[in-house]
Amino acid sequence: MRDAAPATIYLKDYVPFGYLVDEVHLTFDLAPNATLVTSRIAFRPNPDTDNRDFRLNGEGLSLRWAKIDGQDWKPHVRDGILSATPPNPETPFVWEAQVEINPEANTALEGLYLSNGMYCTQCEAEGFRKITYYPDRPDVMSTFTVRINGPHPVLLSNGNPGASGEGFAEWHDPWPKPAYLFALVAGDLVAHSDRFTTVSGREVDLNLWVRPGDEGKCAFGMEALKKSMRWDEEVYGREYDLDAFNIVAVDDFNMGAMENKGLNIFNSAAVLASPETSTDDNFERIEAIIAHEYFHNWTGNRITCRDWFQLCLKEGLTVFRDAQFTSDLRSAPVKRIRDVIELRARQFPEDQGPLSHPVRPESFQEINNFYTATVYEKGAEVIGMLKRLVGDAAYAEALDLYFARHDGQACTIEDWLKVFEDVTGRDLAQFKRWYSQAGTPRVKVEEDWQDGTYTLTLSQVTPPTPGQPDKLPQVIPIALGLLGPNGDEVQPTQILEFTRAQQSFTFEGLAARPVPSILREFSAPVVLERETSPAERAFLLAHDTDPFNRWEAGRTLAEECLLTMITEGAAPDADYLNGLLAVLRDETLDPAYRALMLGLPSQSELAATLHRRGVTPNPQAIWDATETLRQSTAQHLHDLLPRLRAETQVDQPFAPDAAQSGKRALGGAALALLTRLDGGAQATDDYGRADNMTLQLSALSCLLKAGKGQAELAAFYDQWRHDRLVIDKWFGLQVGLASPDKVVETARALTGHPDFNWKNPNRFRALFGPLAMHHAGFHFAGGAAYELLADWLIRLDPVNPQTTARMCSAFQTWRRYDADRQALIAVQLDRILAQPGLSRDTTEMLTRIKG
Ligand code: ARG
Ligand code: ZN
């Protein structure tokens, strides 16, 4: 039993462990409810500290015996900590122990567990302590030798394969690693295999292990892996370092995937793909996740984190690297726009609400609650800014120095910034505030034009966040270009270093007053506040040479149009509709880019903007305005829609590449508009002819959105009832596309469906994710959605605290809304918090959300 108040861990309290580990030997005797784990671990005193406390973490373990240097030992175990005093703490000693664990009973999916009869592990962040007693902290690194005894055809662990035979296999990982990178897999699996020759000639066996039946969904993931391996050699000079690289797909997994050394474990949704069952977006995401986990081999594994406060050291950098990879393989502007849409949808609400925390947090109760959009995505943005400030050449040099200096070490953000300081001679003390100050800076822009001199005055304010009432100015790289009255660029992109609370930048010798294109490529994760006319936005939408800002101009036009519709009951703005029409007509523009132009700010984003401007958002009014604008857009583009459809037909065999997926995205967006005009005739036809999941789902979505498609929905279920990943889509679709007044009843009915295996995180999220994301439905008057979600969080928490805690973020924006809604939500937050034995994960999340 845990104490009533979970303990808070602080970055400032970091102390090194008293011992170094030279070798870890583990033997697993697998049995579903009584697996034996026998460990032999060589410790020696850590010369960097005099602290000789010998404390090992362990949770839910039955200790059978323990020995130190061969002598039986009776350690003291309490609250997940085993303490012992080694007889001679100043000399090396060998710890041995045997514990019994119960993988079958492990529904939390952390430690060693069973998924469809297959053994697998998830140790990051602190799951290894559920496997055996160990200093479960990332700064303790060791080589691992593992023997697995079990009747399973496939027995895997980290590193290189050793001896194997009937009922056993041995593995040795020569690279010292923290325990969070340990992995084990055992089961009846089949491999999709390939080979890769590294730049220096090492032959690597590549295997993607799946359950029998999934073999046909491996080819794309394997290609993505090989591309990632080559790209990391070419762009970062990083070569793979083992003889084997194994990827395993598992159905029950809390997150996307895990970078265990040489044995990546993936949520099957993040790796299995086929044209018939996966959308273009699925393919792109899978490619990025494979790359992400592979890139961790250097940024995360070879160089790891000193402690969990440094999580962004590996995650921010690895997200940044996988985004570079996607930009290189596909379209850089499209990738950037999609990332910014995601950042605004997921990171901004976090940064601007009660869960706001610095990219490097300073305290936590449950580290699993800090695998957040802030640590990952804002962490990646911070690296992008650093690269912009120092330039590409210095960035490359700094990275080389980072790998050379810190290979094999467990590092901090200070180590990371120091390589940039050493390479460039810059002082990054102020820049470091990006890691320590939470919240999204707001940048206000004022302009002045006099006698041929243009002056841009910027001011920055970061609003208070929990525990941080006052903020200091940050270093904000502002990419700026200036356009002349005819749309020509009179000042190409330059980076303004905006470091003070207020700062002016002047540009002389201009023939006419320019139009500024500010924050090109979204050069910093800030909110830009600038009063401009729709005409100026329309000008940028027509002329900006920066593709990101051209899109942004259209986005802002759309947003301002929606906001005036919401707050003043205005009609849709002609500048927006005409500007959009012109862009969509331009066949020289990438279809993927034009599809993005057709997007609107999400309803949640509109609510956030209203709230920032002091207006209480009304979710139904936001829904209505969005629907009205969509309808007007369909009418305005009426003549163009058939042409867009014709232009985006794909005649080649299916390929999930940038070119084809861009066409399908634009064709799908055109179909959605067309469905508003033709009542679903075209979508019904398309559904009947669809020969890949992207087209099938796009047609079905249009029909459901129009309140039709029940026959197709049933046929879809019959067609795909044996494919769990497609059935996840089937669940999500119905909730996500229901009208606001029908969302709760749809979701509730689906919870009673025989396929609603709520203990499977993918299935739980398939239903409740879209419920929480359906802005007008989740906040529909009366609060029934709040109650339904709370009921299920209460049910899931004892089974799987991690997934429960993540879903709690559905409530993070609650203070934006009116008093009635806040009261309804407060009731649910309190009801969950009152559950006896509520997990540390969920308790921490809800306590922070309540504020
Ligand atoms: N390191 C993994 C990744 O970024 C995420 C694992 C997080 N797992 C967790 N239980 N918090 O790919
Ligand atoms: Zn990662």
TrEMBL record:
Q: Which residues form the Peptidase M1 alanyl aminopeptidase Ig-like fold domain?
A: 439-530
Domain Peptidase M1 membrane alanine aminopeptidase positions: 220-434
Q: Where is the Peptidase M1 alanyl aminopeptidase C-terminal domain?
A: 535-849
Q: Which GO terms describe its molecular function?
A: alanyl aminopeptidase activity
Q: Which Pfam families match?
A: DUF3458 (PF11940), DUF3458_C (PF17432), Peptidase_M1 (PF01433), Peptidase_M1_N (PF17900)
Q: What family is this?
A: Belongs to the peptidase M1 family.
Return the protein name: Aminopeptidase N
Provenance organism: Ruegeria aquimaris
What is the primary gene name for this protein? pepN
